[in-house]
User: Fold this.
Amino acid sequence: MVKYSSMPIQIVQFLNFNPIFKGLGLIILGLIALLFAYFMDRKWKEPKSFGFVLFIAIAIFILLFGLYILLFHPNWWALPYSA
Assistant:
């Protein structure tokens, strides 16, 4: 019988079920997207297009969704038979 380490199982459980990891990941992603938009706005110095405004709106939605996951800890990704 082959013995396996439980470390990979713990890593997968942390990545899949931990709302702190999911929330912080989304917040960091939203902040990076907003910083990119700010940098590109300063570099281009052109009028705002619909695509640029849509990109900013999606980045803000991702940021707010990360805050929601971080604050309220929803468990809709948990399997129905998990304890």
